[in-house]
Design a protein that fits this description.
heterodimer, A: mainly alpha, two-stranded antiparallel sheet, 4 helices, B: mainly alpha, 2 strands, 65% helix, 11% strand
Chain lengths: 164, 197
């Protein structure tokens, strides 16, 4: 009975993580805005920055991994392998959100010392969409870290019970 | 409980070998992250540029590139500093109190703290890498000019700090994997061996 509740809890957490990563990908890929400045069309897309490209790729890898694990966990518990892969995916997601946040901060506030002007004033829609994608992308590694602790606990509890 | 007659179970040779390997890896990771912190924290370059020429008098402006100007580099320094402190504390705990245990939670706490440190280092180093890439290549779509051609040694030192942090991240990943393996190894065979005459 407790095992069923635990499995259900796991699947709910993984579905939440999947939702967060998919939302981040979709919103980031569809973010687009253009502005006319002095007869020049100024388009902003996620492609322009390698940090946002890396963000989309990392979230895509995490979603594919989540889908695979959701389908696999209903069959068997691979235990240690899932713990290690969960850790790798958590590290990947946290690195991708850090990189995207660093570049987005420069886009929003600019960097007066380097002579970089903020672009959010010219393309506000793009900035809003990227903000939503980054919030979803921030929730994803948090959920993944909770999942990592849960799978570690699930693998450890039979061993701890055998020790005592 | 696990201990009978108040005696500690003998640690097998394979387990103490693992402990020594983890300690060695922690020392290397500590030096790598400490080097990254120090190199980036001392990263500063001042250059004087000739901005305009009025008549025959050149007007020059002095520009400084410091790591504090970029929040990503500040986060990099803070993250690597915290990782170095974590590694130092773990080394001290392993050297001076190897058998201190609180309800059998020691290995679990070490593994969880290691995982948190890995996530922290990876966040810091990746933010710094993409900011450095922006400084090196600029971004034509956002009209952001590259700065590495003017502040060459600032960029070089920053690159060196980032490489050191990546090395530290790699070693921290190994350490975390080994800590999880130590956690998952069943300890029951140590107790059974003490019963065998």
């Amino acid at each position: 009975m407790a095992v069923e509740i635990k499995k259900f809890f796991f699947i709910v957490l993984r579905l939440l993580a999947l939702a967060a990563t998919v939302v981040a990908i979709v919103v980031m890929v569809r973010s687009h805005d253009s502005a006319q400045v002095l007869n020049l069309t100024f388009t902003a897309k996620y492609n322009n920055t390698p940090a946002f490209k890396y963000f989309v790729i990392a979230e895509a890898i995490a979603s594919v991994y989540t889908i695979i694990v959701i389908f696999l966990s209903s069959k068997s518990l691979l235990g240690g392998l899932i713990v290690i892969l969960d850790m790798v995916i958590t590290v990947l997601l946290s690195s991708s959100i850090s990189a995207a946040l660093a570049i987005a901060q420069v886009g929003k506030k600019g960097n007066s010392h380097a002579g970089w002007l903020p672009i959010c004033g010219q393309v506000p829609k793009f900035c809003d969409q990227v903000t939503i994608a980054l919030i979803a992308g921030f929730v994803a590694p948090v959920i993944y870290f909770v999942l990592l602790l849960c799978s570690l606990h699930a693998v450890l509890s039979p061993i701890l019970a055998a020790k005592l | 409980m696990a201990l009978q007659n108040g005696e500690k179970p003998k640690v097998g040779s394979s387990s103490s070998g693992l402990i020594r390997v983890v300690l060695l890896l922690r020392v290397v990771a500590f030096f790598a992250t400490a080097a990254a912190t120090i190199v980036m924290a001392l990263n500063k370059q001042t250059k004087t540029f000739v901005v305009a020429t009025i008549g025959s008098n050149p007007i020059s402006a002095t520009l400084t590139a410091k790591f504090q100007h970029t929040p990503a580099f500040v986060f990099f320094v803070v993250a690597n500093g915290m990782a170095s402190i974590h590694n130092l504390l773990m080394i001290i705990a392993d050297v001076f109190a190897p058998n201190f245990d609180y309800k059998g939670l020691r290995l679990a706490v070490i593994a969880i703290l290691d995982m948190m440190t890995v996530a922290l280092i990876s966040g810091g180093v990746n933010a710094a890498v993409f900011m450095a890439e922006l400084g090196k290549n600029g971004n034509s779509h956002a009209r952001w000019n590259k700065i590495c051609d003017k502040f060459g040694s600032f960029c070089d030192r920053g690159g060196g700090a980032i490489i050191a942090s990546f090395v530290g991240l790699l070693f921290m990943l190994l350490i975390t994997a080994l800590s999880i393996i130590k956690l998952l190894k069943p300890k029951s065979h140590h107790n059974c061996s003490s019963l065998v005459p």
